[in-house]
Each structure stands twice: as structure tokens, then as C-alpha cells.
Amino acid sequence: MLAVDGNSSVWKELSQPSLVAITENAFSSLQKFDGGLTTNTIVLKSTTKASSIEYKTTSSSTLKGTEGNTMYFPFTVDNDSNRCLVTTIAMNSSGVTITPTWKVGSVTQAFTMLGRAALTQTSIWYLVAPTVGSGVVSISLSASQYWEAGVSLFTGVNQSTPMDKFITVTKPSLNGTSQGQSYIASHAYSGIVNETIIAVISSYSNLTDPQTPSIDTAYSTQTLLWNSNSDGGHRGVAFFQPSSSSTDISALYPGLITSADPTWVIGSLKPATYVPDASGTLRLNGTAAGNTYTQLRSSAQPSSNMTYTLPATPPTTGQVLSSDSSGTMSWITAGIGSSTYTKTCNFVGPISVQNGTARWYPDQSVNITGVYINASTAPTSGPFSIAVEKNGSTIATTSLSAGSYASSVSAINISYTSSDYVTIDVTAANGAADVSVILLYTRV
Hints:
By secondary structure, the protein is mainly β. It folds into 2 domains: 2-269, no CATH class; 340-443, Sandwich (Jelly Rolls). Helix content is 0%, strand content 54%. It is elongated.
């Protein structure tokens, strides 16, 4: 794929298949092909599984100060599910207003800014559910600058909160390692499993002919979106990779880095649905803003492979899921029959005699049929004793013998309604600590 070089009207080859972005006065400026861009290396490390997000295509371009303040990206958006356009911009100016839009026919949609670096305006923008069709993304500045930008299309993106976890890294740590006239910079990024990292790097070099960044193809988790320079020593690169709870991002820069550079901005695309990750979890992201989620986790070593099949019909009010031995699940009505349930009252740490501190209000009528005691630290000088009360009156007592860690079940028969309450009083402690009192009951 060919793209115009920001330093001249010469066209050069991009490493990433893409649509071509051009300036307003350069639609017909194709003159010649000059292959072989000099490259440097961006190194990213991650071992995380990818999520439902899928990368489709990118269009990119550059402008230097004398070429105007608007980039135009001819682009086509197909009718894919959960689509999102992402605009990535690298520049070095604190006083510029940026306005990216997507226009198809008479419909114009504005991008939303995820975040920017305050001193450079290097930034990430997004547009969920862009209008389907062939159109133009335009990025306008309030003043001309040396800058680079790209527009990328992703599918499988959360449409309520498409991006989050934005951070700015100004001058990442330089570890002092040099390779010729290059320096290695790195940043440890705390990401979110199953999301997709989007990153933009903006930097200057004191080289007369600054090299253009690229990725190291040895790292299969990393994908280049665009990379270019816009003359004046400024250059930018944008890339994406799967996120994880800890991701090491490193970059190798050609030439010497100035005192204010480089600047990185990093954000995450959130998937519309989550897939299991390597730790055996299934994470369902909340629909509201923020990073909260509901997660299901497999046991560390299941005794055998198991598939649970959900019912084909919805439940009625009050029903719960039940499973047979093959994993086929069905809806059953809870709280009816002779099934025995447990209610645990915990006393944490060293215990003293106490009344009324452990109380339970049943949410329906129940019959308490038994009680037993477990202790992490056994009583020493005598038994650990409790009283089971109904509405403040003692109904039954039981104890854990000195030197014992678990008692046998004491059979009792106490009926409670939803307006009653159960109290466990400690009548003798005798050195016991971290004790659990377990009530056995049936629902009426």
C-alpha cells in the first residue's frame, strides 16, 4: 500500500494494509514510488488471549507546519456489529484545538476524546456506531503544526463505554541502554484482561533525517496502526495489542531524545463481550461507566471436563437454576420441600462472653433443626458454650468441649417466621478463637 511522505510529494510503502489518507490539495499528487523506509523498533510483550475485538483497517497521514491544518481520510465503514472508529494523533503543541469528524453524505458525526497529553495534545478519540458507507474522516486544528494522525476501525467493541483506562506517560523511564545512537524507553502498564491497548507515541529526534518508527515482527501480540514523521524532527507511531493485568511496553528510539520527549498516551478498547482468559475466568463487564464487572471462575483443577447447558425457557419469579449429573440445567422453585440449608454465624479472633452480637432475620418461615460448632483455636480451660435464642429468649444450648475443634450436631426444633429473629449468645469462651456456629434449617 502506498502513502504520501510528510516531507515531500514522494509516495512510499506502508507496512500495514490500509486506506490512504491525503491532504485536501493532494488528491492527485501521486508522482513516484520510492520504497524502503528506514525503521526503528517498538517492542511490546504480552501473553494474554485476545477478546472479541477485531481490527479491520487503518488510514494515516502527516502534515508539516506549511501544509495546512486539516487532514482528510477517505474511508469506508461496513455494516459490522459493535463497530468503533478510533483516531490517534501525535503532535507537540499545548495550545491547539482538535476537531475530528466522520461524514457520510449529509450525515456528520463528531468523535469523542478519550484523553490527551496536556503539554503535547497527543490524543486518542473514538466514535461508536459510525454511519455505514464511504465517506471522509477530517481532523482540523486551530493552528498549523508538525503532526501525524491515523484513523482505525475496530468491531466487537462495547457500545456503551467503548474506551477506558486512559493514562499519559511523559518521558518514560530511560534505562540508559544505548544501541548506537538509540535509547530504550519502557513503561509498565496495568491493564484490564480481555481489553485491547491502544497507544500513541510522540517524540522528537535531533537527527537531521529522523527515522520512522516501526514494530518488531517477532512480537506477534503487537500490531502497527501507523508510523511516520512530519519533518522538523517530529515523529509518531500508533499500535495496539491485547491487554493484561501487567503489560510491559518498551520502545527503541533512533537518535537522541530531547528533554521533553517522548510522550505516550495509552487507552483501552472494551469488548462487547468477554471470552475466557488463561486464568479460567469469564468476565462480564458492567454497562455503566467505570471498570466494575461480574466474573465467574472455574475451580483450579476440576475433576473432569464439564459443560453446563442452560434452560431453553426463562424462569418464573422465585425459581433458581438446578443441574443434573450431566450438566443439564433447569429452573426449579426454591424454598419448598425438606431440603436442609445452613446459616453460619462467625466470631472472628479471640472470643469473650457476649450477648446479641450475632443475629439473623430469616427472609421466610423456617424450622431450625440442628446446630454445631467449628473452631480454628480450640477452647482450653473449659467448653465453648452458646445459647440459641428466639426473639431474645433462650430455646436451646450447646457447647464445644475443651481441646476440641468441632462439635457434633445438637438436634433442636425451633420454628421462626419472617418477623422473628435468631440470636447466638456466647455464654462461655475459655480461650476459643475464630469460631463458626452453623445452624441447620428447612424452609417452610
